Amino acid sequence: MQTALEQLGYGPCHHMHFCFQNxxxxxxxxxxxxxxxxxxxxxxxxKDWDQLLGHCQAVxxxxxxxxxxxxxxxxxxxxxxxxxxxxxxxxxxxQQTVMSFAGSxxxxxxxxxxxxYLLDRWLCRRLAPxxxxxxxxxxGAETRDPVKxxxxxxxxxNKAYDEVRSIxxxxxRLEFSLDQGWEPLCxxxxxxxxxxxxxxxxxxxxxQEGRRVLLKRMWIRAFxxxxxxxAVALSVAAAWWWQRSR
Length: 246
Prior knowledge:
Elements: H1 2-7, E1 13-14, H2 17-21, H3 26-38, H4 46-53, E2 58-59, H5 68-74, E3 80-83, H6 87-96, H7 98-102, H8 112-119, H9 121-139, H10 146-167, E4 173-176, H11 182-189, H12 204-245
Parallel strand pairs: 1-2, 3-4
């Protein structure tokens, strides 16, 4: 959906991967989650949303999707596209994408993210807390029971959709399925239909390729951040060995 909106001229379109590319914004998302779901801190105003998302023409995916009421209040004339998906298939897709990427006690992810959290202090202090509060806010308390995890996620999914439909006026929202292609989306937004096929880039295979590229960048940054510490440690070890060998 992000690619489709950007092809129509609504770019940049904010997506979850923006948070990985710029963990600094995660601090604001964490503040917003604390204020909305835990009554900690002040409620975000239009000024705050402008600061966080003002460089974007559209938003999609979490964390933005968790704040539809707040964004609708800040931007009451904005149109909303409700992408219809089967909740069961959506959850399966999450297992193959974001859950496998996160890697926690709840999800059978790889060990790469926990290792990066340890090595990349810049990432750890910002992204990890935001991911934790986002999942707990939207999908309930943590549990290791896979049945309960699935139940919590699907319940959170349905609740979010019901909330959007209850808040956004009917004339400002579109119930849309990706297999419908360009026509209904362009008619709703007032755009000409592109000659290129409708993009389907956020499938599992595309996600895994994006994950591979992103992890590579994160490992490079973690390496650069830790080189000075490794160099100091090696220097100390060499000095100690030299003193012992005299």
